[in-house]
Specification:
The protein has about 325 residues and is α/β, with parallel strands linked by helices. Helix content is about 45%, strand content about 15%. The strands form three sheets. The protein has a four-stranded parallel β-sheet, with helices on both faces. Helix 11 links the parallel strand 9 and strand 10. The structure holds 1,3-dihydroxyacetonephosphate (13P) and iron/sulfur cluster (SF4).
Length: about 325
C-alpha cells in the first residue's frame, strides 16, 4: 500500500489544481478530481524540488497525461525530446523499453520507471540470441528493430525505428532486403509502403492484435460517417478496413488537423480520452482495449518513484554503447 497520508483535497489544493482540471474536464467527471488532485499537486511540487521531468506516452490516463506530464507524445517524440531536457531526473510514464531508451540517451541522468512490471508483449517476443541467429540465417541483411525491444536487442541490430518513421528508416539503409523485428504486422504494413523486401519476426502487440476487420466493418454499420484511423501494430485486415494508418502522434495530428465529426481510433483506449480533451467537436467511438502494462503506471506509483528516486533504470555499459548507437542512428533519419 503506497503512502498517501497527509494528501487531502483541501480548498487550497482545489483552487491550485483547478486550471489543471479544466484541461481534462470533458473526459473526467468532477466527482473523480478530488481523488487525483492532491497527488497531482504533490507530484508537481516534487518535480520542482527534484529538478525532474515526466515523459508520458499518449496511452497514459488523462490525470497523468494532462495533470503531471511535461512532455507527451508517441515513442519517437519521447525518444527525441528525452535528448533535449536539462533535468536531473527523468520519470517515464510509459513502459520499460521507453525508460531504457530515455536512459540510453541520457546515461548521466537518473531515469525512473515507476513500475518495473510495465513491460510489452512485443519487447518480450524476441531476445538478443534470436537476433544473432537471424543474422546467421540471413548474412549481410541489415536488421531494423522497432523501439519496442529491450536494450539487449537494440545492441544487436543496425538501427531502430518507431511506427512514426519505420518506412523512412527501412529505406535509409539502401538495401534490397531488410529484417524488421519484432512486430509482424508493422513489418507487413511497411512492406506495403516500400519496394524493399521485408523479412518479419512473429511478435505481436497484445492490445492491437485483438482488433479484427469484421469488428471495424460492424462499427461502420452502426455509426454513420465514421472515420477509422488505425495503428500499424494492428493486423492487416484491420489496416485494410481503415481510412488512415499512422503512429499515435500521426493519429493525434489527423484528428486535430482534420477535425472529423466521428472517429474510431483503433488503438489503446486512453488515446481517445487524451485527444477528446483537445478536440471537442469530434465524437469518439471507442472499442476499449487497454494496455495492462501502460496501466501499471499511476499517479501513486509516479509519486512513490519521485519520493524514493527508485526504481532506477540501469543498462550494462557494454550493451548501452551499442544500443545507443542504434537509437541515435534512428534519430537522424527524418520522417516525411
Ligand atoms: P507509438 O506511440 O510509437 O505509435 O507506439 C505505440 C505503442 O504501442 C507504444 O507502445
Ligand atoms: Fe507494448 Fe502493445 Fe502495450 Fe504498446 S500497447 S506497450 S506495443 S503491449
Amino acid at each position: 500500500m503506497r503512502d498517501t497520508t497527509g494528501l487531502a483535497y483541501t480548498p487550497a489544493i482545489a483552487a491550485a489544481t483547478q486550471p489543471i482540471y479544466e484541461r481534462m474536464k470533458r473526459v473526467m467527471p468532477a466527482v473523480e478530481w478530488p481523488f487525483h488532485a492532491p497527488l497531482v499537486h504533490e507530484i508537481n511540487r516534487l518535480k520542482r524540488e527534484r529538478n525532474a521531468v515526466i515523459l508520458a506516452h499518449n496511452y497514459q490516463t488523462p490525470e497523468i497525461f494532462h495533470g503531471v506530464a511535461d512532455i507527451v507524445g508517441d515513442s519517437l517524440a519521447l525518444a527525441a525530446r528525452a535528448t533535449e531536457t536539462d533535468a536531473d531526473v527523468i520519470v517515464v510514464a510509459g513502459v520499460h523499453f521507453m525508460a531504457e531508451t530515455a536512459k540510453l540517451l541520457n546515461p548521466a541522468k537518473t531515469v525512473l520507471i515507476p513500475d518495473t512490471g510495465a513491460g510489452c508483449s512485443l519487447a518480450e517476443s524476441i531476445t538478443a540470441a534470436d537476433v544473432r541467429l537471424l543474422r546467421e540465417r540471413y548474412p549481410g541483411v541489415p536488421v531494423v528493430a522497432y523501439v519496442n525491444t529491450s536494450a539487449d536487442v537494440k545492441a544487436e541490430v543496425d538501427i531502430c525505428c518507431t511506427s512514426g518513421n519505420a518506412v523512412e528508416v527501412v529505406e535509409s539503409l539502401g538495401a534490397p532486403r531488410v529484417i524488421m523485428l519484432p512486430d509482424e504486422y508493422l513489418a507487413k504494413y511497411v512492406a506495403t509502403q516500400t519496394s524493399v523486401e521485408i523479412i518479419a519476426w512473429k511478435g505481436h502487440c497484445e492490445v492491437h492484435e485483438r482488433f479484427t476487420g469484421d469488428e471495424i466493418r460492424e462499427f461502420r454499420g452502426r455509426f454513420d460517417e465514421l472515420i477509422v484511423i488505425a495503428h500499424p501494430e494492428c493486423p492487416p485486415d484491420v489496416l485494410e478496413a481503415a481510412d488512415f494508418v499512422g503512429s499515435t502522434a500521426r493519429m493525434v495530428d489527423f484528428v486535430t488537423d482534420r477535425r472529423p465529426p466521428r472517429v474510431l481510433m483503433v488503438t489503446e483506449c486512453s488515446m481517445s480520452d487524451n485527444i477528446a480533451a483537445a478536440a471537442p467537436e469530434t465524437e469518439f467511438v471507442r472499442p476499449c482495449n487497454l494496455c495492462p502494462h501502460m496501466k501499471k503506471i499511476t499517479l501513486a506509483t509516479i509519486l512513490d518513484s519521485l519520493r524514493t528516486l527508485e526504481p532506477r533504470v540501469t543498462i550494462a555499459p557494454e550493451v548501452a554503447d551499442r544500443a545507443r548507437r542504434s537509437v541515435e542512428r534512428m534519430l537522424v533519419v527524418k520522417p516525411r
